[in-house]
Design brief:
With 247 residues, this protein is of the alpha+beta class. It has 7 helices and 11 strands. An 8-stranded antiparallel β-barrel has the order 4-5-6-7-8-9-10-11, surrounded by 4 helices. Helix 2 runs antiparallel to helix 3. It is globular, with a radius of gyration of 18 Å.
């Protein structure tokens, strides 16, 4: 029963579940930029980041931060990836979910810094979440959710999944997780599924995790992408997640 509850939490956080009242507003008109970048866009991004208390962990949601994030997206100027790499332009990369747009900037560790549905969950559960995505150039992804709640065994558990990410269209990406594991007694999570010691519980946890890897929670429209910030949506359930690359 505990395992089932933990993977329900995994679905809500790593598969980006939310509530309808958090539905993103319209993204507005996009502008393609192939010349000098606009300082207005940089300022909009800077204003949002400046509103955060911490740039490496999940921040509490509030109306001002949500508004600033929306303003950043609504006012964005998009730059083709080749121009972006050549000039270091401000703003978002054009066609952010195409493989040729994602692949040059994806590699690294990304930390979720803003996600209203996640902080709502921490408030209800009386704990904290720290979610990271480790992306590689070959399209593989590992995600860890450090969950610290008083009602968990030892007060802390790390839920981990791995799989691949790919492109569906110019604005929609896809994540296919195929492995799941739990770290209970180590300060650092097991880095891969293969690193987890063999046991019956390892197989059971992975099998339970796969029950939640369903089609409806595998595709994500991308609202913003540059070399250190991504914003993606799960429109079906209405949530928005912003992650920042920390290395």
């Amino acid at each position: 029963m505990i395992l089932l509850h933990l993977f329900t939490l995994l679905l809500c956080n790593l598969q980006v579940e939310g509530w309808t009242h958090l539905l993103p507003k319209s993204r507005g008109t996009k502008t393609r930029m192939t010349t000098t970048p606009s300082t207005t866009i940089s300022t909009a991004k800077d204003r949002f980041l400046a509103s955060l208390t911490d740039l490496d962990t999940l921040n509490q949601h509030d109306k001002d931060r949500t508004r600033l994030l929306q303003e950043m997206i609504d006012s964005k100027v998009e730059t083709p990836i080749q121009e972006y790499k050549r000039s270091g332009a401000n703003g978002s990369i054009e066609n952010p979910a195409l493989w040729q747009s994602m692949q040059p900037v994806a590699k690294g560790t990304w930390k979720v810094v803003y996600a209203p549905h996640m902080t709502t969950m921490t408030e209800i559960g009386g704990g904290s979440l720290n979610v990271s995505y480790i992306l590689s150039e070959d399209g593989t992804i590992i995600s860890h959710a450090v969950c610290a709640f008083p009602w968990l065994p030892n007060g802390r558990v790390v839920l981990s999944v791995s799989g691949t990410f790919s492109s569906v269209s110019s604005t929609v990406c896809r994540v296919d997780f195929n492995r799941a594991w739990v770290t209970l007694d180590s300060k650092e999570p097991y880095g891969t599924f293969q690193a987890v010691p063999e046991s019956g519980s390892k197989k059971l946890i992975s099998s339970l995790g796969q029950l939640f890897f369903i089609e409806q929670v595998s595709v994500f429209p991308v609202s913003w992408l540059d070399d250190n910030l991504i914003v993606f949506d799960f429109e079906l359930l209405g949530t928005r997640i912003c992650a920042r690359k920390i290395n």
